[in-house]
Protein 1
Amino acid sequence: MSEGATMSQNELRFEPKLLELRAEDGWEQKNGAWWLTAETLDPRAMTKFMLDRDARFMTLTAIEREGGETRLDYHWDRKGVILTFSTQTRGNKFASISDLCPAADWVERETYEYFEVEFTGRDNNKPLMLRPGLEAGLNRRQDAKL
Amino acid sequence: MSYRIPIGPFHPALEEPYKLDLICEGETVREAELHVGFNFRAIEYLAERRNYQQVISLVERVCGICSNVHSLTFCLTVERLLNLQIPERAQYIRVAMAELERLHSHILWAGIAAKLIGFKTMFMSCFAMREKVMDTLEMISGNRVNYGMNSIGGVVRDITDHSAILNVVDAIEKELVGSIIPVFTTNSTVASRCTGIGVLTTQQAISMGIVGPLARASGVPQDLRRDAPYLVYDRLEFDVPVQEGGDVRARLVVRALELIESCRILRQVMRDMPEGPIAVSTGAPRLKVPAGTAVARIEAPRGEVFYSVTANGTDVPSRVKVRTPTFANMPSMQWAVVGAQLADAPLIQASIDPCYSCTDR
C-alpha cells in the first residue's frame, strides 16, 4: 500500500474464499507480499482465520499516521507467501491477539513502546525494550533522548 | 518450596546481556521469565532519520555475527521499492556471502555448545575453523565482522579468487565430516547431555511462530531458501535438514547438517557464477525512493529476518521495521526450560542460538 493510500474496504469478512487472493476481494500483490487493506478489521477474527489455515504469524509493523493514529500491518506466512492485512487504530487502540497467538506477545509490547498503541485485553504490559526513563511512543518523537 | 534464581543481565554464564529469572523447586525449573532490552540502541528510530545509504551501514550493526543479512535484506526491500533488477553476478556474490556467514555463525555456535557440554577441545577446534571462514570473509570484503558488501543495486566488491574459497570449503567439510559431526551425533557424553533436554514440540514451535534451525529441529520443515526463494537459491541444489526430536540434540544435528549444505551451495556458486557487472547505478548517496511500502525476508543463520521499509519519496525512509529471528525464537525459552534440571538451563538457552544484539536492536 502506498503511503497515504485510501483504505479500500469498509468491512472485511473472513471467509474461506478470502485466501484465493483475488483482486475482487481486495488483495493486491506487490513489493514482496500480498496486501489486503481494510479500514475496519477484526484482528481476532483474522487471527483465528489464519491460524485455522496453518498460517504462521510473522510480525506486526506499525507506521505512524497523522492525528495520533497508527497504521498496523499484520504479516502472516502461508505456504511461503507473505499475506499482509493492513488496517489502522481507532484512538490509537486496537484489540490484542496475543492470547490467541503467543507469537504476537512481544511485538505488541514493542509496538506500544515505539508508537504508544494500546492493545486492549492484554494482561502483560511489562516494558520489553525501553529502559527506565524512556517514555512510550519513542518513534513518534522527533528528538527522543536516547 | 520454590526459590528464584536471577541470572544476568551481566553474568559470566551469558555471552550477551539479558536476564533470566528461573523459579525452581529443588533442582527442577518450574517457570522462567525472560527480560531483554539491555542492548537496546533504537536502530529503527535512527534509521528513520538517516538517508538510505547511511541506513545500510546502520542496520549492518544490528548483529555482530550475521551483519551481512541485515544490509542484504534492507537492500532487497529498497530494491523492490525501486523495481530494480540487480545483476546476476551480484546475486551469486550475495549468496556466497550469506552462506559463508551461515558457516561462520553455525561454527561459532557449535563451539559454544561444545564448551557448555564440556568438550573444550572441540570448542577450540570450532573456533580455529571459524577463523578460516572469517579470513575468507576478510579476503572478499576487507572486513571480518561488518563486511560492507551490499549496496542498493548490487555489491561493492567482486569475488575473484574462487579457488581460495573452494579450498576453505574443502578444509571445513573435511573437519566437519571427520570430527565434529561424529562427535555431535554419536558421542555418548553429548547424547546424555542433549537428548530429551529442552524439548519444544512441533505444536509449540508452530504456535510460537519460531523460525530457522530451531523450528526445523522441532519438525517444522521451513526454510525460505527453498519455500520462498530469493536471489538465485532456486537454481541451487541443497537439502533442508529436519529433525523431529525438538531437543538440544536435534538442534545440534540440524545445524551440523546445515554446515554441510552450505558447503554444497558454495561449491555450486563458485562453479556457476557468471561474468558481468556487480551492481547497477542508483545515484546513491542522495537516492530518493518513490513512496510506498515493501517487505523482504531471507533465511539468516538463526532463521527468518524480515524487513518492512516505507518510503515517502525523499532520501530518508519514513519507517524501517526489523524483525530478527531471535525476537521470534527467544520467548520459546520460557517453555523449553520448564521441567529441566537447573544445570541444563545454560545449554538449553544456548541451543536456541540467541542473539540479543539482534533482538534488542
Protein 2
Amino acid sequence: MTGDIAEMGKFIGAGLAAFGLGGAGIGVGNIVANFLAGALRNPSAAPGQTANLFVGIAFAEALGIFSFLIALLLMFAV
Amino acid sequence: MATEDVGGGGLAIHPMDQFIVKPLFGGDAIHWYTPTNVTLWMAIAVLSMTALMVLGTSRRAVIPSRTQSVAELMYGFVYNMVEDVTGHEGAKYFPYVMTLFLFIFLSNMLGLIPMSFTTTSHIAVTATLALMVFLAVTIIGFVRKGPAFLAMFWISSAPLALRPVLALIEVISYFVRPLSHSIRLGGNIMAGHAVIKVFAGFAGAMGIASVVPIAAIAAMYGLELLVAAVQAYVFTILTCVYLRDAVGEAHH
C-alpha cells in the first residue's frame, strides 16, 4: 500500500492495455454495420453470409481479446 | 488466478474468485487425479450431452418430442455448417465438430447456472480444445495432401516479390491460431462472468440503490446467454474454416 512503484505500473499498464478492447469494439461495429447495410440492400443474400459475418467478428475480436489478456496478465500473473 | 486481494480497495469485490479450482472432497492439494469442481462440471456437461443426443433421440419418433427436436435441430445446424464451410469432403469430420460444439455450448450454458462452475472460462480447458483442433488440422492436412499442404503458405496469386513476406505472415498466423482460438472463448466467457460478479459486488455495497446494479446483472445475464451460444458457434465455425485448409476443397 505504501507507494510501490512496480504495483502502480502494473495497474496503469493494465488500464492502458484495456484501450485495445476499444479497437475491437470499433472493428466489430464496422463489420456488423456493413453487414446490415448490405443485408438491407439485398435481404435475400443475407442468410448465406451469416457464417462469414461471425468469422469476421471473431477475427476482429481476437485482437481485442489479446489486449484483454495482457491486462489480465499484468493484474494477476506479473 | 487471483487468490488474494491485490488492491485492498474499499469494496470487497473478488470477481476472479469464482474461477478458483477447488478439490471436491476437501483439502487443498491438487494432483492430476484429484476430482475438482472442473472435473464435476465437465462430467455434467458430458452427461447432459449424452442425455440430449442419445436418450433424447432413442425413441426415434416420427413426430419428435421436445427433446428430440432440440437434438435434431442442433444436429442439422452443425451438419449444415460443416458442409457449407468445408464442403462435402469435410463432412466426414462432422462427429468431431459436433462434439466440440455440444461440449462448449453445454459448458457455457451450465456455467450460467448460479453457483455453478464455468469450465470454459479456463484458458487451460479452451487451450486444450484449440490445440487438439490445431493438431488435427495439421495432421489431416499432411495426411490428405502430403507436402502440398505447405502450398497453403505460398500464395501463388500474389506478386512474386511479395510471396516470401506473405509466406512469413501466413506461417505466423497459422501458429497463432490455437492461441487466438482458445483465448477468444476463454476470455469472452471469463470476462462476462467477472463483469456480473463486479456488479454483484456493487449491489452488496449500495444499499437501497442496489436496484440499479441488480437490473444491470439481469441485463448482463441475458447478454451472457447470447455470448455463450455465439462463442460456441464461433469456435466451431473457426474449426470448420481451419479444417477447410486441410481438406482443401476450393470453396470460393
